[in-house]
Fold this protein.
Amino acid sequence: MQIPYPRADGPLNLLVDSTGIKFLGDGEWQARKHGVQGRRQWRKVHLAMDPATSDIRAVEFTSSRDGDSPVLPELVDQVPLAEPIGTVTADGAYDTRRCHTAILERDAVPFVGRSVPRTDR
């Protein structure tokens, strides 16, 4: 399903990162008070955000064991091809050849893990 988004002028600039979400297990306070009841379980949420509008433009969920970099191409693919992407900014976890290739295939500039665009990969 395509959701219409308000657009800023010019190409889309994406910020990409992930965070963990605990969905099962005791919190720290309960574990200290009553002892550990079971193992905590986590999932990762990978997000691509438009900083101009604060809209989440792409999202993927993975297990906590999965790395960040394999997900970036899927996040970029969620942006419609008709919408140009200007830059993709992400931390060093996404500094892989596969991520740079996915970004460059959309004619975007990668700012990944460093402040200078890298096009030699």
About this structure: The radius of gyration is 17 Å. The mean pLDDT is 84. Strands lie at 12-24, 41-50, 55-63, 85-90, 109-112.
